[in-house]
Amino acid sequence: MAFALLSLHLKKSAVMAICLVPLTIYWPHQVTVTDGCVLYAVSLGMMLFIFGRSLLPSRQPLVAVVANRVHGPLRADIARYTHALTIVWTLFFAAALITPLLLFWLGPTGTWQWPLSGGTFAMALLFMLVESGVRRLVIRNFQHVSLRTTVAAFRSTHASTMRTTTSDA
Questions:
Q1: pTM for this model (two decimals)
Q2: Burial class of 90 by CB neighbour count within 10 A (0 to 12, 13 to 18, 19+)
Q3: Which residues does the chain have with pLDDT short of 50?
Q4: For the CA atoms of 124, 129, 130, 132, what is the dihedral angle to 10 degrees?
Q5: Which helix (H) or strand (E) holds 9?
């Protein structure tokens, strides 16, 4: 419903609201859980799509685009590193999408909710911090920027990518 409102499809959002109100009255817990799962899957699925799409042969890897915005033209070793990092982030998002399902089927009762309630976000932050240290060890003789600068560049790149994706559709 949030997508319908954000995309200004008011008729669709009104129809969805009418259909969902009885469900929320009779099964509020189930609707809340379903809503959380859908939001989790859509947000991570979008990140997986954006990172994965940037790995296509006709495109530049997303991390390379961000690095290029921050540093200008990239050296060959940095270009290889950013390509590999884009692959790793794509795998991270794929694993993050699969983890709740695996925990639901194979894990103890209730553990499938851990990724949805902040576990994936915590793992992404941990991954960013570890990668920042690894980057400083792997890429030498280079002026590294702060994590804040990197996130700001990603956000501006992500916004322009979203504009391009919606105009392609």
A1: 0.73
A2: buried
A3: 165-166, 169
A4: 120
A5: none
